Amino acid sequence: MNAPIADSAVTRRHPPLDSDAFDALLAELTREFAASAAHYDASAEFPHANLARLHEFDLLSLTVPASLGGAGASLPQALKVVRAVARGEPSTALVVVMQYLFQFRLQCSPHWPVELRERVAREAVRDGALINSLRVEPELGSPARGGLPSTVAKRSGDGWLIDGSKLYSTGSPGLTWLAVWARSDETPPRVGVWLVPRDAPGVRVGSEWNHLGMRATGSHELVFDNVFVPAAYAVDVHPPGEPGAGLDAAGLAWMSVLLSAVYDGVARAARDWFAQWASTRRPGSLGAPLASLPAFQQTLGQIDALLFSNRVLLDASAQAAQVALDEAPLVKYTVTNQSIEAVQRAIEASGNPGLSRDNPLERHYRDVLCARIHTPQNDSVLQGVGRAGFAAILQA
Description:
This protein has 11 helices and 8 strands. The chain is an alpha+beta fold and 396 residues long. Strands 1, 2, 3, 4, 5, 6, 7 and 8 form an 8-stranded mixed sheet that branches. The longest helix has 32 residues, at 249-280. Mean pLDDT is 92; it is low at 1-9.
């Protein structure tokens, strides 16, 4: 096992996180990723090159603690990076969100063996190694709505054998580690996370990701056929109903902010295209750019108002004292729905050019619609908020 990386021994490959030079670096990465975004959308190839560029500047280990060689970034700092990446290529940004969230929470877990926690962190720093949680299954659907996993971990000598499959395994072509949610074959069963190396024998791709939008996330089905892992790799396993796998309150806040920022970034890219197009499109019957018409000015104003609201809400929510943690799902609901509305307004105003596959707006529209599939989904958010509101009145 490699020796721990001391923070004093690490030379940062990016400028200080809150400097103008760092902002300039992010702006350059946005432009670079935007230039290849259409290719990744059309081909559904995984954006290995984008992630390699992020590792080049130590941006895949941004939320690894400084004591282990990372930047120990705060949520506002992580938000800044996700915004920039998403505005260029959102599939890359979604993979980054999962990396940031996992690494932020990892070192606080009391259940993981220290050696494994530090190994996963060190490999992110040294190699840009990626990790993600794999929870959704064909039969179960979203685990947020209840139920036990069908994926089973069976005792085998000095370890476990994992059998089952997971859907929507975001980043799977580039992951080094898989945090697999499963149940043991014990009576009664225990439930939790088994850590599986992506290259372990018996891990294979089942059905491939082939969706309308966010096409480059590599969110394939992963199948586990008698995959052996050592006993210590049962890193967070507990009786059903006890605290363990899943998001705690702080994790939910980070997820709500960073996930929402991906789709806000898509909407901002759509806004930029629409503004540029309306400024240069000069119909012969008008003799002036479309941007000179009050209707187009109002449309851009409506889009900018929605994105202003998103920015203020995300910035406030990234500051822990600004928004209560139980309000975090409303952040996701509000920002993502306003992002969808912003792109829809651009589509409506631009007409056929906006829906043409020769222009990026239709791609932005397909991408932003994917915000609706992420947990918590709209119905769950609204039902939870409404239930809490009525409960508060009844208890008064």
